[in-house]
Amino acid sequence: MLNKKIYDLLYDNSSILGNRQVNLVETNSLDFLPDRKYDFINIDTSHNYPETLNEIKYYLRHISESGILMLDDYMWPGVDKSIDEFMYENSEWVPFLMGEQAVFFHHVSHNASEFLDQTLNVLSPFCSLNNVDYKSHIVKKVSCLPAVSDHEDIFTMICQRYKL
Questions:
Q1: What is the domain count for the chain?
Q2: pTM (2 decimals)?
Q3: DSSP states of 99-164 as a string?
Q4: Is residue 98 included in any domain, yes or no?
Q5: Is residue 72 in some structural domain?
Q6: In which domain, by residue range, is 86 found?
Q7: N or C: at which end does the chain have fewer Cβ atoms within 10 angstroms?
């Protein structure tokens, strides 16, 4: 689950979002009842197969084709198996960005370059960026310095310094 403090740092008065409205829905994913299509869904799940796959299928129905699907902890065996099956059944959703713990997908009808450009511009001063193969797709891999990713106070200072 996205930490509320980090969310506030990234999205409260952030230039990254422009005029777009962001509402954080902080809840157990099994308790959430979507009432519309969303532009960004982060699934941070039980890490077990098939529960993770069922959550992906459920939330996929509630994301717009121009949206971004983020799956946390993609290296856990249950999540990895769920991603394999999700990609097999939904070839129109492709990975394009990954971090140390999360992988991001977009629909093939939508160009995620604006999201990618904005994200990479923010991260490039303190992260390394490389193209890597992930499940037969070339994705941008973002690797942050451990001091940035492991310490919330340093992360906070960076957000403030770069006016995130």
A1: 1
A2: 0.79
A3: -SSEEEEEETTS-THHHHHHHHHHHTTTEEEEEEEETTEEEEEEEE-HHHHH-HHHHHHHHHHTT-
A4: yes
A5: yes
A6: 35-146
A7: N
Q: ∠98-104-108 over CA atoms, to 5°?
A: 125
Q: Is residue 74 part of a domain?
A: yes
At 71-127, the pLDDT tens digits run 999 999 999 999 999 999 999 999 999 988 899 999 999 988 887 887 777 777 777
Q: What's at 116, amino acid-wise?
A: L
Amino acid at 56: I
The letter for the amino acid at 34 is: P
- Position 148 pLDDT exceeds 90: no
Q: Is residue 1 part of a domain?
A: no
CA distance 78 to 50: 7
Q: What is the DSSP letter of 79?
A: H
